[in-house]
Amino acid sequence: MPAPAKIIRVLEVVDTLEAGGMEHQLVHLINRLDPERLHFEVCCLRHAGVNAGKLKPGVPVHLLQKAEGFQWSAVRALRGILRQGFDLVHTHNLSPLIYAALATRGGITPIFHGEHAQLTPAEFTRKRLWQRRLLYRCCRAVHTVSSGQREELLKTGLRHPRLTAILNGVNTDHFKPPASNDERRTSKARLGLDASDDLQWIGIVARFGAYKRHADLIQAFESLAANHPRTRLLMLGDGGPEKERVLQMARESQMAPRIHWAGYQSDPAPWYQVMDLLVVPSLNEGLSNTTLEAMSCAVPVMSHDNCGAREMIRNHEGGWVRDLAGVEALKQSLSEILPVLPEMGPVVGRAGRERVSRHFSWTGMAEQYSVWLEACAGRRSFPA
Questions:
Q1: pLDDT attached to residue 253
Q2: Which domains occur in the chain, in start order?
Q3: 3-class SS at 229?
Q4: d(CA 266, CA 178)
Q5: Do residues 158 and 133 lie in contact, with contact meaning Cβ atoms separated by under 8 Å?
Q6: Which residues, 6+ apart, have CB-to-CB distance to 186 below 8 Å?
Q7: What DSSP state is assigned to residue 368?
Q8: CA 102 to the chain's CA centroid
Q9: Cα(345)–Cα(324) distance, rounded to whole angstroms?
Q10: Contact, 313 vs 237, CB < 8 A?
């Protein structure tokens, strides 16, 4: 009888486990993958964050408490953790890769690196591009979260022999539409929202980063609100450098009574279920988790034409992809879509849920990660 396969020990290296799409996906991936094949531990370069509490019991979280800027002490601390005997290091975005490459002395412990968003203008400096080109050489493989993001890296000259796209997935059993209008009405009341059936709730779910463009959405909402008196704006999310400025805008807006900030929600599913439209004006994405979650709840999505948007939304299956760069563009698109939502919204939403169920399942994503983690650890051949 053959001996059982040795469990692969994986160290996930991240900046933090604060609220965010990548962090959310990582935690649920760790919780889902087979513990008989893969043992996970997490190393946060700075602090833990709210998603750490969502990890299943028995997943250690190492905190390096790194301050701003580069610190050799963090490299030494990470090297000390690696001495515990890991088979693979899985890094997420550039900073963790820098520390992992140094701590592993160039990938002596194999590195599987993940890029989770489009490169920002700051990432196109000669220094940053040089860093990635050099550090990718230390990796067994590099993955993105959308095919468009992979193509962007290739066009930028950021290549790797094993550069693959592992598309984000969504838990369609959890993110689902309400069973009936009565349930939706009850949910609104429970969440403290006006439960009137004739109101239209526009939602945005994001941290307060400049590239998420809350301020532009508020301005667009203000400019069209008079012509759409039954429309409301619902904002979910917390943290980020733009938080105080955006919330001040909302408080001082003439439409303040029609703007509702719900803060960070550990379970956003009930909030999606009361939305009539999710707006994703982000300039920078990899493959938007909020788009997938909304589509899974049969909520139509109006998305900026960012990376991954057209991979999720096609031919009105799930929503509309448009150029939303600028307040006027946001206003124009909302003005066109809001009047047709009562008729088209349910049809577009149902088609979106069907598309997500077919192409963006949790199971498919987890299987792909399992294959690539095992291959990078040398336990199986790489996919063709």
A1: 97
A2: 8-169+362-376 (3.40.50.2000), 181-359 (3.40.50.2000)
A3: coil
A4: 19
A5: yes
A6: 195
A7: H
A8: 27
A9: 19
A10: no
Q: What is the largest CA-CA distance in the chain?
A: 75
Which 3 state secondary structure label does DSSP give 42?
A: strand
CA gap 161, 155 in Å, rounded:
15
CB atoms within 10 A of CB 103: 25
Note the pLDDT tens digit of each residue in 259-317: 999 999 999 999 999 999 999 999 888 899 999 999 999 999 999 998 899 999 998 89
pLDDT computed for residue 1 by the predictor: 47
* Residue-wise burial string across 89-99, b where 16 or more C-beta atoms lie within 10 A, e elsewhere: bbbbbbbbbbb
Residue 33 CB: number of other CB atoms within 10 A?
A: 18
**Distance between CA atoms of 192 and 194, rounded to whole angstroms?**
7
Question: What is the average per-residue pLDDT within 106-116?
Answer: 98
Q: For residue 231, which amino acid is it?
A: T
Q: Which residues contact 262 (CB under 8 A, 6 or more apart)?
A: 191, 234, 235, 236, 271
Asked if the model's pLDDT at residue 354 lies above 80, the reply is: yes
Contact predicate 77/46, CB 8 Å: no
> With 60 as the cut, is the pLDDT of residue 340 above it?
yes
What is the full DSSP assignment across 315-360?
A: TTBSEEEE---SHHHHHHHHHHHGGGHHHHHHHHHHHHHHHHHHHS
Torsion on CA atoms 275, 268, 194, 214, rounded to nearest 10: -70
Nearest to 120 by CA among 307, 293, 295, 322: 307
Q: Give one DSSP letter per residue of 271-311, joined into a string.
A: HHHT-SEEEE--S--SS-HHHHHHHHTT--EEEES-TTHHH
CA 141 to chain centre: 21
Residue for token pair 């002395």: 105
Dist. CA 372–CA 376, nearest whole Å = 6
